[in-house]
Structures are given as C-alpha cells and as structure tokens.
Amino acid sequence: MEVKDKIEATISSKGQVTVPINIRKKLNAGTGTKITFVIYENGMIGVETKKKPTKADIRKQMKEHIKKFGNQLPELAEEDAFLNDFEGDIDLDEI
C-alpha cells in the first residue's frame, strides 16, 4: 500500500486522541460517531466508521424505495410518527 498522506495526533494521559478535522471530514464523522480500528494481517491499522442514520437519511431511503417498489412502507404522511416512535439503531441496508 502506498502512503498518500500522514497526519499526526497526540495521545493524552488518559489514552485519548483528538481526530484531526481533515480525517473527520474524510470519515464523515461527527460528535457521537463510533470508530473502529481495523488491524490487518500485514500489521497495517485502519479506521472505519458507520454513520448512524438521521431521520432525513431514513426518509430519503423510504422515498426511494416507494418510488421503485410502490407503497410497501408506511405512507409518507405518517413518516414522522413512524420515525418518532422508532427506537434503536437501524441498518439502512435492511430498509
């Protein structure tokens, strides 16, 4: 693997590190985003994120599904009630 860039950060006495802004932007990560450190067999370490979907993300996915497959989900007028009642994580791939 060729190195494209190096960005330095410092580990605090509590073992914490601030993720530099340009890395957060590349990861599309903000406050509350969980990151996963991935250790590869060759010793390289990577960072991955899984962005928690927002109501807007879910609404967009629902509209695209209805446009493609018809009204098989709650009607759009009921979306807010449906989303407000929803608790927990949702995998957009399952919608």
Protein architecture, described:
The chain has 95 residues and is an alpha+beta fold. 31% of the residues lie in helices and 11% in strands. A two-stranded antiparallel sheet has the order 1-2. A hairpin with a 5-residue loop joins strand 1 and strand 2. It is elongated. It starts with 20 loop residues before the first helix and ends in a 10-residue tail after the last helix. The model has no long low-confidence stretch (mean pLDDT 77).
- Per CATH, the class of the largest domain reads Mainly Beta
Sketch the topology as an H/E string, one letter per element.
Answer: HEEHH
Distance between the termini: 35 Å
The major sheet is characterized as: 2 strands, antiparallel
Helix fraction, binned, reads 25-40%
Poorly predicted residue ranges: none
Put simply, the count of helices is: 3
Going by CATH, the architecture of the largest domain would be: Ribbon
What is the CA-atom radius of gyration, in angstroms?
19 Å
User: What is the number of independent domains?
Assistant: 2
Note the topology.
Blueprint: H1 21-27, E1 35-39, E2 45-49, H2 55-69, H3 79-85
Antiparallel strand pairs: 1-2
Looking at this protein, list some descriptive labels.
95 residues; Pemi-like Protein 1, Chain: D
In a nutshell, what does this entry contain?
This protein is an alpha+beta fold.
